[in-house]
C-alpha cells in the first residue's frame, strides 16, 4: 500500500493500492496449492511414495511413482497412468480420459482427474450382471475443483471477492433467480475478478438439501458442493471455452482415491443410466430372446411409442412415456447461456432426481415433470427475448 492523495482530516492519510488506486475491496488472490507446483513432489519422494502405496497398492505404485513429479503429460504418460489405474474401464472412457489429461495437462496422480465406475441397477433396484457374472458398470469422468482452478490460473490472474466462496445471501438469490429459486435447496455464491482486465463474474449454484452427496461420511456438505458448482460456473463465465465441458466437477478431498467401484450416491444408489433399455428400443425387445438365440412362443411386449417433447429430431432423451429432443435442449442452453452443469443442477434441484449427466437425469423424470421442464425452459427463453 501507499499513502496517496496527501492529508486526509487531521494527521491522517488515505491508504490506497499501488497497482490500482480505484480498488475499494480486499480481494483474496487465487493461488496454486503445493501439489500443483511442478517439481514440488521431488522434495518428498519417500512421503509421496508411501501415500501412493496406501492409495493404489505396491504394484501400481511401482509403475506410477515415476510420474508423480513429472512435468508435461504426454499421450504415452497419460495412457500408462489411465491404463494402470482404470484398466477395466471401457476403451472409449479411457480414451476420453487420456485425451483430457494430454490436452489440459492433468495428472490423475495429483488428484486432477478420476474415472469412477457406478454399479448399474435395473428398474427393480437389483444390480445387473453380464454373462460371466460381472457387475455391469456405467463410468463417469470427474475433475477435481483444484484442477479446475489450476487450469484457470495457468493463464490468468484472478481474485475472489466478497469473502467467497460462501453461502449465498437471500438478496443474492432473489436478485439472480427471483421466484425460480428452490426453497428446498442450499445455494453457494462465488464472485471472481480478473486482476489484469478488471472483468468480474458471478456464480450461483444450488443443491437439494435432501440430495445424497458423495463423501458425506468424510465430512463433505451440501454447502460445500453448492460452492464447488458455483465456482465452476463463475470460472466458465469468466473464461468461456477454456474449461472442459460435460465433465462433473467434484471436491477431490472427499473422493475415494482407491478407485473402487461405488454406487452413484456413494452408498445405495441408482446408476445414471437405466439398466436393460437402450435409447430407441421398446421395453419388450430385450425380453423377446432374439439376441440370445432363444425361441419364445408369446409375442414380445409392446409399449406405446414415447411422445416427443420439443421439436422433432432423431436424438432424444427417453423416459416413461415421453422423449425430450436434445437438439432443442442444446439450442435452448445457448440462448440461456446455460452449461450442462447448470441444466443438471436445475433438474436435480427442481425435480429431486439423481444423475451425473443431463441425459441420465432427464430419463428419470415423470411425464408431468418432463412437460414442466420444457415449459420452464421455454418460459425463460420468452423472458429473455426483450433483452435481445
Poorly predicted regions: 37-43, 258-314
The shape, in one word, is globular
Element order: H for helix, E for strand:
EEEHHHHEEHEEHEEHEEEEHHHH
Tally the beta strands.
Answer: 13
Strand proportion: 15-25%
The largest sheet, given as strand count, sense and whether it forms a barrel, is: 5 strands, antiparallel
Structural class by helix and strand composition: alpha+beta
Give the helix/strand layout.
Elements: E1 2-7, E2 13-16, E3 28-29, H1 45-56, H2 58-64, H3 75-86, H4 91-104, E4 113-119, E5 137-144, H5 145-153, E6 158-160, E7 166-167, H6 170-177, E8 185-194, E9 200-208, H7 222-238, E10 248-250, E11 307-309, E12 316-319, E13 322-325, H8 326-336, H9 340-351, H10 358-362, H11 367-384
Parallel strand pairs: 5-10, 11-13
Antiparallel strand pairs: 1-2, 3-6, 4-5, 6-8, 7-8, 8-9, 12-13
Helix pairs in contact: 1-2, 3-4, 5-7
Describe this structure in words.
This protein is an alpha+beta fold and 388 residues long. It has three domains: 34-150, no CATH class; 160-245, no CATH class; 302-387, no CATH class. Helix content is 32%, strand content 17%. The protein has eleven helices and 13 strands. It has helices spanning 45-56, 58-64, 75-86, 91-104, 145-153, 170-177, 222-238, 326-336, 340-351, 358-362, 367-384, and strands at 2-7, 13-16, 28-29, 113-119, 137-144, 158-160, 166-167, 185-194, 200-208, 248-250, 307-309, 316-319, 322-325. Strands 3, 6, 7, 8 and 9 form a five-stranded antiparallel β-sheet that branches. A three-stranded mixed β-sheet has the order 4-5-10. α1 packs across α2, α3 (75-86) crosses α4 (91-104) and α5 packs parallel to α7 (222-238). Residues 266-311 are annotated as: Disordered.
